[in-house]
Amino acid sequence: MANQRLSDRELRDARFAALADAPLVRTGAKGGALGGSWASLREILGQREMLGLLVRRDLKARYKDSTLGFLWSLVRPLTQLVIYYVVIGRFLGAARGTPDFAIYVFTGLTAYTLFSEIVAGGTSSIVGNSGLIKKIYLPREIFPLASVGSALFNFLIQFGILVIATLVLRKFPIHPGIVYLIPAFLLVLVFGTAFAILLSAANVYLRDIQYLVEVGLMILMWASPIVYPWSTVQAALGNGVLLDIYTNNPITLAVLGFQKAMWVSGDTQPSPEWLLPRMLIAIAIGLIMLVGFQRVFARLQGNFAQEL
Hints:
The chain contains 15 helices and no strands. It has helices spanning 2-21, 33-46, 48-62, 72-91, 101-123, 125-128, 130-135, 142-168, 181-205, 209-222, 230-237, 241-247, 250-262, 275-300, 304-307.
């Protein structure tokens, strides 16, 4: 028995000695802007398996114990399409001046829904994973990025429905405007990820952020040309500074880009001048914001466990 106690004591002393010799790992901001972001990216890539597990967990939790399961991801966008097409398109007459109004609306909804799911899910991601954050160390950016992954899964389903709709209506987008699809997608992804990272950190310290985000996303939807054409805004504001401010909103540019790519009947409709260069400039600005917001996140993450 005495030998057993001695052995246990030696093991305990060995553990304490190993902990004392272990190097301290800094969890806050690392280096400068680009160097720190690159170090964080390498750390996230090292945990890519955990990121995949978190994405799958979010998707399973969303439809847990439901009979239809992932079919609900089809029901929601189709219900939105029917409501907007019938109420706004038919009852309010918006469809009269807009050819293939159903495709037009669903294209804008596809772009906007991706952005809103990334931002809304990312905002609550840190608080929603508080138990895991307080127990183990992971790169904290993984949690908002997991929300990006689950939003992309739903986007693929909704985009698949859009492609099928264009085939059924014989309006498949084989035309020069398809080149707008990739920059439009990148716009949504870059800006959505940037704001998801920033707002996820801010929400830890001020829980009202998630409610403000809900209101902001609702306003943003109606401030984008989804259920009304861009030409309506042009007629109301004229060709001036106000129209440029409206048009250069990244989500407006992304919606217009998706419409240019997927809405074949829109080839004859008015659209902003220099749309593609505007989108490319916005993507560059979004990448700068993404790096900057990640550095803000890195400085705020040190106190997450205490705040949670």
